[in-house]
Amino acid sequence: MAKKTEPALTSNALLIDLRGLIESARQHVAQTANATLTMLYWHVGQRLHKEVLKNGRAEYGEQILPTLSTKLVQDYGQGFSARNLARMIQFAEAFSDEVIVATLAQQLSWSHFIEILPLKQPLEREYYAELCRVEHWSVRTLRERIASQLYLRTAISKQPESVVKAEISHLRDGGQMTPDLVFRDPYMLDFLGLPQDYSERDLEDAILREMERFLLELGVGFTFVARQKRISVGADDFYLDLLFYHRYLKRLVAVELKLEKFQPAHKGQMELYLRWLAQHDRAAGEEPPIGLILCATKDAEQVKLMDMEASNIRVAEYLAHIPDMEVLQAQLHRAVELARERTACGTLLNEKKEADE
After folding, report:
1. SS3 at position 219
2. With the C-alpha atoms ordered 267, 163, 154, 329, is the resulting torsion angle positive or negative?
3. 313-319, strands of its sheet edge to edge
4. What pLDDT does residue 57 have?
5. pLDDT at 350 over 80
6. How far is C-alpha 197 from the geometric centre of its chain's CA atoms?
7. DSSP characters for 238-288?
8. How much is the average pLDDT of 240-268?
9. CA distance readout (Å), 55 to 52, 67, 142
10. Does the structure show a pLDDT above 70 at 2?
11. What's the CA gap between 279 and 83, in Å, rounded?
12. pLDDT of residue 159
């Protein structure tokens, strides 16, 4: 077969370059148009919100929106229906800071905001908006994250509200992701399709078969490194179930799978693995390795008493079979309340101790 001539090769390279320029420009135009439209909706919502507040009557808002909508729809289409105008007002109320909205609008579309607006808690809305911006979630991914109660499953949701606000502000200002934003409890592993009487090896094998979906459940930033990582200490060999690397945390993540309830002995085992990884596998510039013990169940009081985080270890339950979502949501809300109560009690005890001294 005849070789391609030099002009033909040059032409192909030129075509690739031109296509790249065109696609980049199209993407930029689409992103700019999306941000402009989102900011328009925010300004419309803010203007309407001020008008309704100025009048001081909810009935006034109910009357004026259909009237305005009729005129706007005639001129600008269904995007300005009474329902959408009400959403714009809700948008301006929920996200009152124009600077923050302008930043979010660079990544989030109006469809993203429509998924976030029904959430009742302000911190929950801010969490999903910021994670969506940082991790570039699609609307479908955002919808799935909200449906799986992601916020309530993160460690950050169990912190006092002041801590949650500080973490979100840190992320908004360009700060790094923290373990509290990354790790979850429980992890939803129903997609593994495990039988009722599965073994630890069944669990590990299923995770490897469904690694792509397992990484999605872990969250953005995780990269699979090894299975049954050999840890040689003296004359003995130990084997770590799974090893990952998190590019945002800039550290190795050791994962141990336990079919039983969390036991105190699991902490010593993980501490051994983390020290070995820090000594033998930690690269220059990386943060110390962190451990995640995934177990069938755990006693929250026992885990807190053992001060696992001081050893860079997280303990989380996994759900191989998902219960009724309403029941799960109630359980997660209760877990958040209890965690915040324990934190508040701990703070009061420390303050009393300092006062006595």
Report:
1. coil
2. positive
3. 187-188, 313-319, 290-297, 251-261, 236-246, 222-233
4. 62
5. no
6. 31
7. EEEEEEEEETTTTEEEEEEEEEEE--HHHHHHHHHHHHHHHHHTPPTTPPP
8. 93
9. 5, 16, 36
10. no
11. 60
12. 84
